[in-house]
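TASK: fixed-backbone design
INPUT:
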């Protein structure tokens, strides 16, 4: 169990789940739909990290409505291939691939509902 789990709110949970699966390789492992129209999703990254996401009932806002609120940082095995897939699936790349001085190679993308995702590979020797 990871002690901290990010939770992202979306206007359209179904569309969000489909997009992050296609573009980012994040798979849906659980879905709960509430009577009030809310939806809870449990997503898993390629290395086993969990992210919760939901389609919130009225009153909640996501970044497409209020601006940047957070960013996810997800470690992947091959960041160059990950970047190419995300770009091919229409992810908005807001920071192209860069090798950082502390041994990570990273890019950042924005999903269609405004959440920012950074994907990084830990380079050998880092």
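OUTPUT:
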């Amino acid at each position: 169990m990871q002690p901290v789990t990010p939770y992202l709110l979306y206007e359209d949970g179904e569309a969000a789940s489909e997009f992050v699966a296609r573009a980012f390789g994040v798979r849906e492992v659980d879905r709960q739909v509430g009577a009030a129209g809310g939806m809870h999703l449990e997503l898993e990254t390629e290395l086993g990290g969990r992210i919760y996401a939901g389609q919130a009932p009225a009153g909640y806002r996501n970044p497409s409505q209020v601006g940047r609120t957070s960013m996810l940082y997800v470690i992947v095995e091959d960041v160059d291939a990950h970047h190419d897939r995300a770009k091919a699936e229409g992810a908005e790349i807001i920071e192209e691939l860069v090798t950082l001085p502390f041994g990570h190679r990273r890019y950042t993308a924005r999903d269609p509902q405004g959440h920012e995702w950074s994907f990084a590979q830990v380079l050998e020797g880092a």
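COMMENT: The two ends are 25 Å apart (CA to CA).
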